[in-house]
Design brief:
Helices cover 14% and strands 29% of the residues. It is of the alpha+beta class and 86 residues long. A four-stranded mixed β-sheet has the order 1-4-5-6, with helices on one face. The chain has a two-stranded antiparallel ribbon with strand order 2-3.
Length: 86
């Protein structure tokens, strides 16, 4: 899913996660076969779930290949909330 999907008022999938932190990188040794040739896998299909609660956010990570930090930054950007719990 490239775009976030709102499940209800409290739960949203995160959609594609941008790589904004300079210290975390996608592993350069991972590849995916596209149109008959091997290309670097940027892992754009990583997913997480955001649950809004009164005191902040709960972020449930999938495989976290796009990194925990980038996922949390993205969750904050989508929701406008600063507090979160792992």
């Amino acid at each position: 899913m490239t775009k976030p999907i709102k499940v209800n008022d409290s739960i949203t999938t995160i959609g594609e996660i941008s790589m904004v932190s300079s210290f975390e990188q996608v592993d350069a040794d991972l590849f995916v076969k596209k149109e008959g040739s091997w290309q670097p896998d940027k892992l754009m299909d990583d997913q997480a779930l955001i649950v809004k609660i009164e005191s902040g956010l709960i972020v449930i990570l999938g495989c976290a290949h796009r990194s925990i930090i980038n996922t949390l930054y993205h969750a904050r950007q989508l929701t406008g909330r600063e507090k979160y719990m792992l």
